[in-house]
Design brief:
Layout lengths: L5 H35 L4 H53 L18 H8 L8 H103 L1 H22 L1
GO molecular function: SNAP receptor activity; SNARE binding
GO cellular component, one term: Golgi membrane
Protein name: t-SNARE coiled-coil homology domain-containing protein
């Protein structure tokens, strides 16, 4: 997650999402044209089967691409959330263990001017301190005075780091929001494609049923013709009647007409 090209990923995501949306719109228009032709009856069985197969193939490929992009964005969302959780955990531990954030302990010993005897001793002119206790107190007080500039420097450094962390956190939050919104939009496109594929499947099933029914009708007609042919060919008495009628008309024609 370090040196994460968030802007480049967002730009590529937007481009791919726009391409998927445009393809989805084109497939919807194609489906509308096909439904209009079916409603008008201006189609043949072969053309309908071919167009249905092409539409199903295109929809399946677009659904596969949409699903892959959705899986990639879901994985990125999970990685961003895991990174933010680790960052919060480590930042909490560091803030607890950072010695620079601790305040200096207050001095428990009273200042020398709070003691009347020391104040009286300080009022007398002397080049050296009257005793070694005050020297020790001054030596003990000196580290506390020396720590004040370093604490100010540490606080200023922390104040400079905090805006950077806030900007980084805001950018990560915006990236996470964009990814989640893109995933929801892709989910809508995926649902729409699934609905279109289901409708196309129902249409293909109806076409298949009609073709099966037509094939059954053709087979029944062929069977009826074969039965009639067998009946005529096996009925010799009928053939004799037809032959007798033909001879009768021939004799009548020869005797009376000729």
């Amino acid at each position: 997650m370090f040196n994460d090209p968030t802007m480049e990923i967002q730009e590529l995501t937007v481009l791919i999402k726009n391409d998927i949306t445009a393809l989805n719109t084109a497939l919807t228009d194609l489906q509308t044209i096909q439904n209009m032709e079916i409603a008008d009856g201006n189609y043949s069985e072969d053309r309908l089967v071919h167009s249905t197969t092409v539409c199903d193939d295109l929809k399946s490929k677009l659904m596969s691409a949409t699903k892959r992009l959705q899986d990639v964005l879901t994985t990125r969302t999970e990685n961003i959330k895991a990174h933010e959780n680790r960052k919060q955990i480590f930042s909490t531990n560091v803030s607890r263990e950072n010695p620079f954030l601790r305040h200096a302990k207050p001095m428990t010993e009273p200042p020398p001017w709070s003691n009347p005897s020391n104040a009286f001793a300080n009022s007398q002119p002397s080049a050296l301190p009257p005793n070694g206790v005050q020297v020790g107190n001054q030596l003990r007080r000196r580290p506390a005075v020396d720590n004040t500039p370093s604490q100010h420097m540490e606080m200023s450094m922390l104040q400079q780091v905090n805006p950077r962390q806030e900007n980084y956190t805001e950018s990560r939050a915006v990236a996470l929001h964009n990814v989640e919104s893109t995933i929801s939009e892709l989910g809508g496109i995926f649902t729409h494609l699934a609905t279109m594929v289901a409708e196309q499947g129902e249409l293909a099933i109806r076409i298949d049923d009609n073709m099966d029914e037509s094939l059954n009708n053709v087979e029944n007609a062929r069977g009826a013709l074969l039965r009639n042919l067998n009946r005529i060919s096996s009925n010799r008495w009928l053939m004799m009647k037809i032959f007798a009628v033909m001879i009768f008309f021939l004799v009548v024609f020869i005797l009376f007409v000729a």
